[in-house]
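re: ur question from earlier - yeah i can do the single chain one, its not a big deal. heres the input i used so u can compare w yours
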Amino acid sequence: MPASSPITITIGPGTPSAEGPRLTEQAQTYNFSTYYPLVVESAQCSWNDEDCTPLSPMRIQFNNPLNRDAYEESWVEVSPALPGATVDIQGSTLIVSGPTKGRTSYDVTLSAAIQDTFGQTLGKTQTLRFQYGSAPAVLSGPDKILVTLDPSAAQPTLDLYTINQSRLQLRIYAVQPADWPAFQRYLRDYNQQDDWPTPPGEKVR
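and the output i got, formated as tokens:
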């Protein structure tokens, strides 16, 4: 059968039955199409039209399922280089994952030798560009209510970790054991009020 073609099969009328003497009174028609030449249908690293988030994978969608058994490293080249990158094939989707950086464009070059399950190849080298934007701003620290700094350290510190946060504003209060009930009320009200409640104790900074 010719590739990339609609096929119509018509049987009858007058087709005999294997179970009795009656023949079909109308023609039976079946429609399908043969597989199409292998092409790239889409490429994305986000679910919208915005720039991609760093570390999100690059997904390349083909029109036919790819031949996983025929895969070679030469099928995919990433520029700038992406150390530790992995390539996975899931049906008709080729996925490139790795430590992508923010505010960086990556070019993925696909080899003409990429092959689908029908034995067809892509036929020509193709380069796709993926644009990564800034990572979302993040601030993280201890997730416990009470944290004890190491008293034996020469300079005890409380470590915080940030991404794309240039400044941090702190308010520090000195408290006593008698402030514990007020602190519990503060924690209760903190997420239940539009205006942040005032912490107990004496503000020292």
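The helical segments are 180-190. not sure if urs matches, ping me
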